[in-house]
Design a protein that fits this description.
mainly alpha
């Protein structure tokens, strides 16, 4: 038995591991926001009578959905061109902070009346119509 053989982690494998973990972490962070956007779009499509301008009400979560998907692709693109573990971590944290800024701002509004009216009942949207009941003209 040779003593030359030892267990070691290649630098390349550690970089791949960091890239994989950071892409999974951003995906897990954005997954609830994508689901919420899709739920809001479905609610607007099933209940257009609840809105004065249903097209605009649909576009807000649609834009949010596209921005979150773009953030995931941007993260993958940025991680693809990182050659060191430090740069991969730095770019992931920077993108994560940029994605979190709107949520930090929203949670900083303490006594905003509009926020209380929009987000009362813990974001609960009660679906009482289905798409199959909607007449298509």
């Amino acid at each position: 038995m040779h003593s030359d053989y030892g267990l070691y982690v290649n630098y390349y494998y550690s970089l791949l591991l960091v890239k994989f973990v950071s892409s999974c972490a951003l995906h897990m962070m954005l997954y609830p926001f994508v689901g919420r956007s899709m739920m809001l779009m479905k609610y607007v499509l099933n209940h257009p009578d609840d809105f004065t301008h249903p097209n605009i009400a649909f576009m807000v979560p649609f834009i949010d959905l596209n921005l979150n998907i773009a953030a995931e692709f941007l993260n993958l693109f940025m991680l693809l061109y990182q050659h060191t573990v430090e740069h991969a971590i730095i770019h992931f944290v920077a993108l994560e902070i940029i994605v979190e800024i709107p949520h930090i701002y929203m949670h900083s509004l303490l006594d905003d009346q509009l926020k209380e009216r929009i987000f009362k009942d813990n974001h609960a949207l009660h679906v009482h119509k289905k798409a199959s009941d909607t007449p298509w003209n």
